[in-house]
Amino acid sequence: MSELHPRLRPRPVRVRGDGVILQCFVWGRDTDPSVMLIHGNGGHARWWDPLIPWLVPGWRLVVPHLRGHGDSEWAEPPRYALADFAKDLEAVMDSLLPGPTPLIGHSMGGRIALSLAARWPERVTGLAVLDSRFEPIDPKFAAKYRSSVSGRREGRGYASLDEAVKAFRFIPDEPEVASRIVRHLATHAVYEREPGDWTYRFDRGVLSMDGDGAGDLRLLLPGLQCPVFVGAGADSWVMPERELDRIRAAVPQAVVEVFPGAHHFMVRCPERVGPALRAFLDATRERG
Which of the four, 171, 186, 228, 238, has the lowest number of CB atoms within 10 Å? Predict the structure, then answer.
């Protein structure tokens, strides 16, 4: 199994969410302050691994696979609204996060983190969102990225691990990611469904043409009561400058930083993103 940091290993913990069992990973010392990291749509908990050396030691990381992703259970029948993900993570917070904590989310994970911060201001001491869209789903976006798999839950099979790993692609594309990171993400994304049948650990039922049902999350921004960090990719269409301007207007105290790369910039330049997140987290601790 591909590992980026052999000397840093997480411990797996299973948590019962809202009708599903979630596989989570805990990194770092139990005596350190805790933070939860939430991956994006189609990803998995190990997407955060490239950032680990900048966060551990010093922080205890709680990193779940979302329902329908990685080693977490699929919802039967499919239930993948933002409210479903949020209920699961409330259970993770109850089980693994002993007190108020910051949240970090990438893409869809940022949407979930924002909803939790707005709903539970007394439990969230900081919010970091990385390249997340807060407006309702765009039908043109859904048609472009989801129409080909709508209604299909199982992914295609590959004859070997290497074949499955070679098929791994960033959506949207993210050039210039180090090959060892690409292989690490791909290796943790697949499993052998049957002998000689490798596939991706992802329920395509997540990719609803109607989105996550959350509506316009921008309406939540002015009411946030915690420090906010916003990271965007310089080449990403998800958080273009006009969207960053809207966030600055809604949350004047937010720290906004643009990084090299596109939507998945955190795995393209972890050496830039990791220290920025560590500085934000440490500041929330000092503030508390």
Answer: 171
